[in-house]
Amino acid sequence: MRLVVACVWLFALVGIAATCASCMPQIAGGDNGHEERITTYDPAVRKFGEAVMKGDWPTAYAMTTPAFQATTSQVQLQAEYDKLIADIVKDDPTFKPNTVQVEQGGLPSSEAEAKDTYDFKTMPPKSQWKAWMFAEIGEAVQGTMERGLEARVLVIEEQCQPKFAHVEFGYQD
């Protein structure tokens, strides 16, 4: 009987470990000798950018964390984007976003650096940070992004799903 109970517990622990491991990003050696994060978050960041570009704010907003939502309403998030788009359209009345590109950035080195550099309204513990990424939303001509905005997002995971603990819009560099 004890052997059966021990086997059941062992299989349960292996299942939990496999589930937790599947949530973790893969790590591989980079060309420069440093480890580089191979992200599994590109599809989520692309989905967010495409939702924003199409004006599907309920979908985009649902991808943010409850803590972010407690400090920023969907209307506020959309207004931040709309203001920047309006500035571009004022300068170029023909501007119409038609593409989303995803880029990876380097995570801040500390929570203090993140607070000093970015306008974080909520700060998840650094241990939860998975990636700092950009959904570049803009107008592409012959496959080349000419102009646009970027959504800068801090990715964390909640129940093995990517969520955005911070979103800010800015002009594309």
Describe the structure.
It is a single chain. With about 170 residues, the chain is an alpha+beta fold. Helix content is about 40%, strand content about 30%. The strands form two sheets. Strands 3-4-5-6 form a four-stranded antiparallel beta sheet. The radius of gyration is 19 Å and the shape is globular. The N terminus is likely disordered. The termini are far apart. The chain has six helices and six strands.
Which segments are poorly predicted (pLDDT under 50) over 5 or more consecutive residues?
2-21, 25-38
* Cα Rg: 19 Å
Mean pLDDT: 81
* Largest sheet data: 4 strands, antiparallel
Per DSSP, the total helix count is 6
| Major sheet strand order | 3-4-5-6
* Fraction of residues in helix: 40-55%
Shape verdict: globular
Query: In percent, how much strand structure appears in the residues?
Result: 25-35%
Q: What is the string of helix and strand elements?
A: HEEHHHHEHEEE
Q: Distance between termini?
A: 65 Å
In short:
By secondary structure, the chain is an alpha+beta fold. About 40% of the residues lie in helices and about 30% in strands.
Notable traits:
globular; four-stranded antiparallel β-sheet; 173 residues; disordered N terminus; 6 strands; two-stranded antiparallel sheet; alpha+beta; 30% strand; 6 helices; single chain
